[in-house]
Amino acid sequence: MSSGQKEPLPDSQQADVGGGLTELADVVQAELAGRETDAHFGDVESDESVAELEAEADFAFVDEAAAEIQVLPPGFLAGMSGSVVGEDGSPVEGLFVQPCTYTQDEETCYKSLTDESGHWSIAISPPKDVVATHVRLVTDLYAPLSCHYEKDQLQVEDGVAVFAKPLVAVAIPDESAVVVQAEPTEAVFLNVDGLSVTIQPDQFFPGVFETTTIRGMKFPLGEDLPCFLSPDTVPDELYVFTPDWMAFGPPGGIEVRFANSKGLAPETKVTLHVLGGGDTWIHPVAGDPFHLQVGLWYELGTGTVSPDGAEIVSDPGCGMPGLGWIGWEKG
């Protein structure tokens, strides 16, 4: 899908947080009425109510009630606002954006859809003393970008965190699509631009309960880096898969193989990294599983160039924990 085209969601007209936080709750509720909005499964047709889903979610979605903002204590947020554009700079309409806030005690996630200008916004009511935030694109057609921001990184105007730099939605080619049937009985093979993964039916966690399309690509690395990378953390190669909520259950993850496109010598060690995404858990070979914070770039472990020099193979216990972002770097 080219930039500027809609995700397959209803048209959205978002209120402008910077204009007073009015009418936002009604807009969001109208857009999402009758649709499931779940931390794990994105947007699908459903007759379930948001209230019923909240009982099953890892965290509660907030009813973005409109609020008259008077005087906020220092450090409190009453809203968040940003925009999404395509690779050519044109606005992307109808994209589900999930902003979340962290206080000392809890994580709270909200929901918004981009309007025809690519703008999204949410009201935080009551205002919160936020220590960090993240913004996640929940999508099956674009790279599922997740960005983490500490409090001192936020640009706050009248109590609203304004993300002046648009998030860039990079479309994943349709030719990469692999359809996974509900409750699969056969192995799923992913082979995208030099990365290959084989997933057995019992390795999906907790399982595949509806037909799902997986897309992936080798992500281009240029001067304009994804928000979770800095010049000091750029991998040699970066790959992305969607949906980023699909996780793998085996301890140590799923073995991943990269083509040795850089011509590294046999037995050379590389470092593997993954991005905390929609539901990224690490299931170590020994010890308890732990959750990766959304939008942070984590060191996963190591990989080794095969004896014939053809591939880089993840070492035991350092496999891919789920779909999302994965990269490797020498050293």
Offer a concise description of the structure.
The chain has 331 residues and is mostly beta strands. The chain has helices spanning 24-32, 50-54; strands at 35-38, 42-45, 76-86, 96-102, 107-109, 112-113, 119-129, 132-138, 146-150, 156-157, 160-162, 167-169, 178-180, 188-192, 195-199, 204-205, 212-218, 237-242, 247-248, 256-259, 269-275, 281-282, 290-291, 297-305, 311-314, 325-330.
How would you characterize this protein structure?
- There is one protein chain.
- The chain contains two helices and 26 strands.
- The chain is mainly β and 331 residues long.
- The strands form six sheets. A ten-stranded antiparallel sheet has the order 13-17-18-26-21-24-25-20-15-14, with no helix packed on it. Strands 3, 7, 10, 11 and 12 form a five-stranded mixed sheet that branches.
- The protein is globular.
- The N terminus is likely disordered.
